[in-house]
Amino acid sequence: MSKQAKINRYNIIPMTQFEENDLTINYDSYDSIYGNLYIASTDKGICYIGLGNETEIIEELKKKYTNAVLVKKADQQHSTALSHISNPDSAEEINFHIKGTDFQLEVWNELLNTECGKTCSYKHIAEKIGKPKAVRAVATAIGQNPVTFLIPCHRIIRFDGTLGGYYWGLDIKKKILKHESLR
DNA sequence: CCCTAACTAGTCT
DNA sequence: AGACTAGTTAGGG
């Protein structure tokens, strides 16, 4: 057991409807150990990370944040996020500015408490948020997670030890887990 | 708006 | 393999 103090380096800021109506998003593409990825942020925090080509990412952002103004521009927050991806032990703080239902936010919050390098089951998460029966729902919520890599959805596997699914493909999931176990 | 039905990156029998 | 589960989402009244 590690006895390091539980500093929450990750902080979720739920996006209000008011904020969403007047939103500017900076996004840019970056090269990572998992390939080319896009990071997007508001002035408050990271709001999306995705793989794919620029058109797809923009489509995705437009769909999620209908009224947002998208600006292709590098951002300090992006580089912080990027360093976390290649080095999960980084101590820098990161804020997430994301939209989701109460339930989703609860689940994502719980994910952030899972220790790096460890894996745990969907059931475990469900129990932790006090809804042990809501496993299926937890899984769907995790699937909606807009900030892959940083919200460690890749650390969650099935109860029987098989990997389960992954939005960006199981290949990526395996890669991340390997990277974290080798670090 | 409310209601219903159809999903799901799971789990148990 | 099949049943079952709870929450989200989409479609109809």
Describe the structure.
- By secondary structure, this protein is α/β, with parallel strands linked by helices.
- Helices cover 37% and strands 22% of the residues.
- It has helices spanning 17-21, 54-64, 76-86, 102-112, 122-128, 135-143, 170-182, and strands at residues 10-14, 24-32, 35-41, 46-51, 69-72, 94-98, 120-121, 156-157.
- Helix 5 (122-128) crosses helix 6.
- It binds a DNA duplex (13 and 13 nucleotides) through residues 101, 103-104, 121-123, 126, 131, 133-144, 153, 156-160, 163-167, 170, 173.
Q: Catalogue the unreliable spans.
A: 1-6
How would you spell out the order of helices and strands?
Answer: EHEEEHEHEHEHHEH
Q: What is the rounded distance between the termini?
A: 18 Å
| SS class | alpha/beta
Strand content: 15-25%
Major sheet description: 4 strands, mixed
User: How large is the count of helical segments?
Assistant: 7
Would you report the number of β strands? 8
Shape: globular
What is Rg?
Answer: 16 Å
As laid out across the biggest beta sheet, the strand order is 4-3-2-5
The overall pLDDT average reads 92
Helicity, in percent? 25-40%
